TrEMBL record:
This is ABC transporter periplasmic protein. GO terms for cellular component: ATP-binding cassette (ABC) transporter complex; periplasmic space. Residues 88-447 form the Solute-binding protein family domain. Residues 11-45 are annotated as: Disordered.
Length: 537
């Protein structure tokens, strides 16, 4: 699974309290028990509206956007797949791999008798190609597999993978590779990218570039259960109001992402059901540690004391998000059994205290006319959060210049390190079950100007600890390193953790046994060992 910058949906509301009031609602209220039909032989059809345009890349070696992946993940099976809590389970693999050489070699056994849609058997050579092609072809997914030094096909169903060095996330992330048929894919990569062949429960039926994708059930699917849904149609509906109007009117079956502004209306509808799951998303406020007043950690702490993140999330996002106290989302902590000291980290987070904020700014010698530029993606909750911070700074005698930007403009701006461009920015990141996705991409010095723009030099062994954790296969050692790194982040505050935005869907009440997956790219899951979606006509 590749980490990528997360795009948030629109929000509304304009609450003004900062008193640590009511608790934020629990997303588990929008998860449901299984519902199975009386008749197993079904031919249901489903339409699914996506909240963004697809890149229309359906080759797993190439694909790098979540909404192409939503289609792709029904066509391909993975070597290992993520369950509903982001744990990796064998799929094409026959059990867990044999680990050798202190985490530098892994031997995989492949189940026999699995076929691609064209009838070819899935072999170890196909798995090897799936691992190595992203690096060989220099695709956007190359970083996820760059630690692989070589692969050796032992026989048709046995593969050896050799790493350049131990790599902690390998068994939690990299092994989840989607398996493609090497011969068919390499024969015509362009054709494969828009008419792919996998071994998953669905295959392409019709595709109109920029309009829709239609999948049909593969009746010879090798695994159980076979899906109840016979046909599924994907269409992009990026306008929130239009998407909500369609689900409320019964003009579609399922939509991805319920905007916080429309949550109450959707939840109040008699014939629509909201489905939600925690996600590995991490939204954050980052400070320019390169230039300007925010190079002083006391100024950064002052900003943290100037408003209440808890109240902002409660008022503006409600059940759609949870506040965070570290760069590690709750589901990442739980799915990897990291057992991080979250309660201790919560105690380190700055509480709303405007007097303390004002005192810190005055003691730091911040000029009275300080009005830092805060940049954020326009039109969503992060821009609203920037405005909240600006209004709280105004209340204690300062101010802020809040600028909402297109995502492309923001990416070009936040990596400059220039105080004239920004002193704070708001962004997000979607990782997975391994903390490396957050710490390496967002804090390690090698990613300066790439995944980060805060230019934080760190104290002592900060960057070495991140790299050592990345190149270790010992989870206990990695845990201790990440605890040290997190406590420095909370102490020196190059970023202030904000919230994790949940994955949500809204469905007509006749859509049964639908469950939101933590990874947005796996929604709608349709069929797995814990669900098999069907339509109660």
């Amino acid at each position: 699974m590749t980490a990528s910058v997360a795009l948030a949906g629109c929000i509304g509301g304009n609450g003004n309290g900062d008193d640590n009031g009511d608790d934020v609602a629990d997303i588990s209220e929008y998860q449901y028990d299984r519902e199975e039909p009386d008749d197993e032989d079904r031919s249901d059809s489903l339409e699914f509206l996506q909240p963004a345009e697809r890149d229309e890349d359906f080759d797993p070696v190439v694909s790098f956007d979540s909404y192409s992946a939503q289609v792709m993940n029904l066509v391909f099976d993975n070597l290992y797949e993520w369950d509903d809590e982001m744990g990796l389970e064998p799929k094409i693999a026959d059990g867990m791999p044999e680990e050798q050489d202190d985490g530098e070699t892994y031997v995989f056994e492949i189940k026999e008798g699995i076929e691609f849609h064209n009838g070819d058997e899935v072999t170890a050579a196909d798995v090897a190609h799936s691992f190595t092609a992203p690096v060989e072809e220099e695709t956007d997914n190359a970083a996820s597999y760059a630690m692989i030094e070589s692969t050796e096909v032992i026989d048709d169903h046995t593969l050896e993978v050799n790493l350049e060095h131990p790599y902690g996330p390998f068994t939690m992330v990299t092994m989840g590779v989607e398996v493609v048929p090497e011969d068919v894919r390499t024969d015509d990569r362009d054709a494969f990218n828009t008419d792919p062949i996998g071994s998953g429960p669905f295959q392409f039926a019709d595709f109109q570039q920029g309009e829709y994708v239609e999948l049909e059930r593969w009746d010879d699917y090798w695994d159980e259960p076979h899906p109840h849904i016979e046909e599924i149609r994907f269409e992009a509906a990026p306008d929130d109001a239009n998407r909500i109007a369609q689900i409320l009117a019964g003009d579609t079956d399922v939509i991805d992402t319920v905007p916080a502004t429309e949550w109450d209306e959707v939840e109040g509808a008699d014939d629509v059901v909201i489905h939600g799951s925690r996600s590995p998303s991490y939204m954050y406020l980052a400070f320019n540690c390169n230039e300007g007043e925010t190079t002083n950690p006391d100024v950064r702490r002052a900003v943290g004391h100037s408003f209440s993140m808890h109240d902002f999330v409660n008022e503006h996002l409600g059940p759609a998000a949870d506040p965070l106290v570290s760069p590690v989302p709750e589901i990442t902590n739980d799915s990897g059994d990291w057992d991080f000291p979250v309660d201790d980290w919560a105690e380190m987070m700055p509480e709303y205290d405007p007097d303390q904020a004002q005192e810190l700014l005055e003691d730091a010698g911040v000029p009275e006319d300080w009005e830092p530029t805060i940049i954020a993606p326009e039109g969503g909750p992060r821009e609203a959060l920037a405005e909240r911070i600006g209004s709280r700074l105004t209340e204690i005698g300062y101010g802020a210049d809040v600028q909402g930007m297109s995502f492309a403009t923001l990416v070009d701006t936040y990596t400059t390190g220039n105080a004239d461009d920004y002193e704070m920015y708001l962004l997000g990141w979607t990782g997975g079950p391994d903390p490396d996705a957050y710490f390496y991409n967002l804090f390690h010095e090698s990613q300066e100007g790439v995944g980060q723009g805060h230019f934080y030099e760190g104290q002592g062994d900060f960057h070495d600890s991140i790299m050592n954790a990345r190149q270790s296969a010992d989870q206990d050692d990695r845990r201790e390193l990440y605890i040290d790194v997190t406590e420095e982040i909370l102490d020196y505050m190059p970023v202030l953790p904000a919230y994790s935005e949940h994955n949500t869907m809204a469905a007509r009440e006749e859509v049964k046994d639908l469950h939101a997956h933590p990874a947005v790219s796996f929604n709608p899951r349709i069929v797995s060992n814990y669900q098999n979606t069907w339509i109660d006509e």
